[in-house]
Design goal:
mainly alpha
Length: 105
């Protein structure tokens, strides 16, 4: 169950990163509120997952889900630039996440 909590925590990290961008430096109320609520949920679920997962594993996978997810959202929703080097970097992050999962009992 800890892995499910960790996955959902990572998804909420993507939400808060996106809405933080939309908040324009916390000057827009709606996106700011969503950012803060998503942060609380994300951190809370990460804390629950850390009850049974090692710190290094949980934190690495949480940040990795957020990083790669924000990268994908940036490209697909915000029309951010995509190039081979950025894609390779994202693939390397995902590879590291898979290796971290496989290395954890």
């Amino acid at each position: 169950m800890a892995w499910v909590f960790l996955l959902v925590a990572g998804l909420f990290e993507i939400v808060w990163a996106f809405t933080m961008k939309q908040s324009e430096g916390f000057t827009r109320l709606g996106p700011t509120v969503i950012t803060l609520v998503a942060m609380m949920i994300s951190f809370g679920l990460l804390a629950v997952a850390m009850r049974s997962l090692p710190l290094g594993t949980a934190y690495t996978i949480w940040t990795g889900i957020g990083a790669v997810g924000a990268f994908v959202v940036g490209i697909t929703v915000l029309s951010e630039p995509v190039n081979a080097l950025r894609v390779v970097a994202a693939v390397l992050i995902v590879s590291g996440l898979v290796m971290m999962k496989l290395a954890t009992e």
